[in-house]
Each structure stands twice: as structure tokens, then as C-alpha cells.
Amino acid sequence: MRVSVVGSGPNGLAAAVIMARAGHEVTVHESAAKAGGGLRTDRFEAFDGIFDVCSAAHPMALASVFFQSFEITRRVDFLTPDISYAHAMEGVSAVAYRSLQRTIDELGRSGAGWGRVMKPLLLNIEAVRRLGGMDLRARPSTIGAAAALAAAVGGLSTLREDARSLAAGVTAHAAAPFGSFPARFVGAVLAAEAHASGWPIPRGGSAAIAEALVSDLVAHGGEINVGHHVDDLREVWRPGDVAILNIGPRGFARLGRGLLPASYSRRLSRYRYGNAASKVDFVLSAPIPWADSRLRDAGTVHIGGHEADISRAEKAARAGVVPVDPYVLLSQPTRLDRSRLPEGSSDEIVWAYAHVPNNSEIDASEMIARRIESFAPGFRELIIHHEARPAPFFAATNANFVGGDILGGRVDAGQLLTRPTLTTRPWRTPLPGVYLASASTPPGAGVHGMAGWHAARLALRDLDQTLPDLGVR
Ligand SMILES: Cc1cc2nc3c(=O)[nH]c(=O)nc-3n(C[C@H](O)[C@H](O)[C@H](O)COP(=O)(O)OP(=O)(O)OC[C@H]3O[C@@H](n4cnc5c(N)ncnc54)[C@H](O)[C@@H]3O)c2cc1C
């Protein structure tokens, strides 16, 4: 069977690999010059070193049913920091170690509460991962995991002091309304992974994951056609073929003009987008001089202050106002991976972005530098080079990042699990043989390939086939 995949992000490549392994003739069409979508590692324009353009930390890659069956850890060298993430605070910061016990101990008075929320999740971690990936095939462990997740979603709001700040930083990843079920659900899953598989980075950058997928696809007869922006579905699909679209609802409405029923197109057009990212990549002459020296070895650092401060900043961004003190996510990849710099270099690369309003053109470099400086006096003096990537950069380089929303659509109660439309099989479309598989379908944003896994599984089921073996061979 001829299978066209439009888009080569992690979900597109996951679907392509599965369909090629199942014996189909697969071609992936990608607008960009290189495959990978959000898995992109580039060279700095004016510095000898490489940086991750999009994804940096990959807890979901180790946790996902797709990547586990693909044996990703046998194909990519993941480096896992002892500190998964930290929440920068004045004085003593809050730190999530890979070790849950150490986290509890160092959180002091609020540590016991953190343990109470995390332990049931860790006891049920495999089932929690399946639920997080929307793999709802019934198993006895699913009920235990659902109960643990429900308790964690509630428990995150009962935390006190430093544990509450730790939770606030991780729940802000989803840019969802603070205190909402989607924010806490995403936060609970990410926080559990911090103590389960950790928050690893691939040696050589996130593109290493894309390269592993592409090389498996090619080894099984698949092809990648880069530099081809598909404008009309009929360029790559005719009735009787299979197409798996690694694109968002807006892109699909455009591609499917004249093919899609009007009522479905209308539902796609109602899909909403959320806050955008404004990013900066710094090169420093030394590690960030965090006042709390434990943060020097953290893989990821959240900057946002107390829960109420983050909530205010996120709300402002959603209302279209650039926050004065935005929530900032920061990664320090070269604390672990020196291969990203020339041999012998003692420089450091820092990746950071702030949540800003959708479509905002603001260059957040200065705001982010100020935020870092307040928890790491002397930071500015270490900057050798920086490159800003505001929201329009993301919108222009990936049609799925509408207005610079890097999460493929607003994450709220209406769109967490029903993206892009309310149906039990959101990966299926009204066109027979055409499936959707992107961050705008469940389980949403992140490098997990699970939307691609779901779409390919449905496509195979419609062809009376089962999932092929995906292991290294
Ligand atoms: C700054 C930033 C930081 C992030 N940090 C993390 C992180 O640390 N960890 C994490 O897990 N995730 C992170 N993410 C999110 C993650 O990158 C995305 O959720 C993920 O890449 C989405 O995967 P996808 O398969 O849906 O498609 P994408 O990765 O979005 O790829 C879609 C591809 O489709 C192509 N395309 C779209 N339309 C067409 C068309 N019509 N024709 C041809 N090609 C088309 C695009 O060019 C693109 O290559 C980050 C993203 C950004 C931007």
C-alpha cells in the first residue's frame, strides 16, 4: 500500500517507521530542508557550537510506549542529570532530584507532602505512562494508575512551601490555566518522570532522535522528501491510499479544501491556540553562577517565583499582554554533553524561553537575562554570544507552531484530550485512509511519538494488520 506521511516531526516519523515496518511503501514529505520538526539541532550563526532549536529535555521519549518498543535507548545515547529540574528561589531553591528520597530530604518541612503525591505514581509508573500516552487498552493496572493520577492531580494543590513552588514550575510547562485539571495532569506526569527515568538529553542534541527514526525508516524501504511543502492533499494522496498527517487542524483544513465535509472543517476552524514561546540561546564563558550552587548541575531550571507570580504571568500572556516577569524554562545541556562544543572548550550553552502572548513579536532575550541574573548575580558578564528566536521564528519555520504556540494548540479542559475535535478516535478523519498525528491530537505536545503510534495503529487496524515489531534489527 502507498503511504504518504506529511511532516517529519516525532509523530510523523513514528507513524512512518511503523508503516514501513508493516511492509508499506512509505514516503515522508517535509517542508523544511531537514527532517525532524521539533527535533532539530543547529549550528550557531556566529559561534562554533550546536544548540537545540526546539526540544531539549526528553522525559517523554523514554516513557512512551512507542519509543520503548522502538528501543530508543539502544539507538541514542541519553545523558541523564542527577537533578531533573529545579525551581529557582531567592535563598534556597527547590530541587527535584532523580532520587525521590533526596528530593524529600532536601525539601525539608514540605518534603513529606511531595513524597505522598509522588510515591503512588512511581509505584504505578508503567501504567501511568500508558495513561499519559492515551494508550487505554484495558489492563488491571490501569485502574490503579488512574487512581494514582487522580490523587496526584488533587494532591499537587495541597502542597506547601518549597514543594508547592516545585509543583508550580512543572505544571506551568503546559501553559494551561493555573490550577486547572490539564495543568496539573501534565505536571503530575512530568514530575513523576523526573524521579522515574529522569529528564535526559540526547548526546549531540535532539536531532539524534530524529536521525535514529530516519535511519530505521530508510532501512525499511521508506523515503524522505524534504523541501516539499504540501499545499493540497491530492498532491500526495488519492482515494484508496493511506495518508498520515503530522500537521495541525489549521493545516489540515487547508490541505483538505474541497475534500473535507463542511461541518468537520468548521470544527477544525474552531480549534484554539495558546501562549507562544520567545526563546534565546546563550553562549557563556562559564557555567551560570546560580546563587544556590546546586542549580549548576540541574538539567532544567524553572524561573517564575511563587505559584501566584507564575499564575499571574501566564494569565497576562493568555490575555495578550507581555508579562513583566514571565515564566522561563531553561536548560543547561553542556553541563552534561560536552560534544556540543569544540574540543577543549570551557564555554557553556544555555537554552531558555519565556511564555509570551500568541503572535507576540517580542524578543525576550533581555527579560530572560534579567530573570536569570536575579537568581545568578554575575550572569550577564559571562555572555559571549546570544541568538534570539521570538515567536514568529517558530511560526515561520514550522506551520504547526501557529503564532509561535509550540504546544500545537491551547491546553485546557476543552482541548486536552479531545484535540482537535470531540470524538473517541481523534486520529481518524472523515476521509477514509487519512489520519491525523501531531501535537494537536492526543496525547498532545512533547517528543513521545504517541500520536503517530495511535494513527498508525488505527491505519493498520483498518487494513486488518497488527502493529509490527519495532525493536532494533
Ligand atoms: C522552543 C521549543 C522547546 C520545546 N521543548 C521541548 C522539550 O524540552 N521536550 C519535549 O518533549 N518537547 C519540547 N517541545 C515540543 C516538541 O518539540 C513538540 O511538541 C513536538 O516536536 C511535536 O511533534 P509533532 O510530531 O507533532 O510535529 P512537529 O515536531 O511540530 O513537526 C511537524 C513537521 O511537519 C512539517 N509540516 C507542517 N506542515 C507541513 C506541510 N503542509 N507540508 C510538509 N511539511 C509540513 C513541519 O515543517 C515540521 O517539520 C519544544 C518545542 C519548542 C518549539
TrEMBL record:
Source organism of the structure: Microbacterium galbum
InterPro entries reported for this sequence: FAD/NAD-bd_sf
Domain of life: Bacteria
Name of this protein: NAD(P)/FAD-dependent oxidoreductase
Taxon lineage: Bacteria, Bacillati, Actinomycetota, Actinomycetes, Micrococcales
Pfam family, one: NAD_binding_8
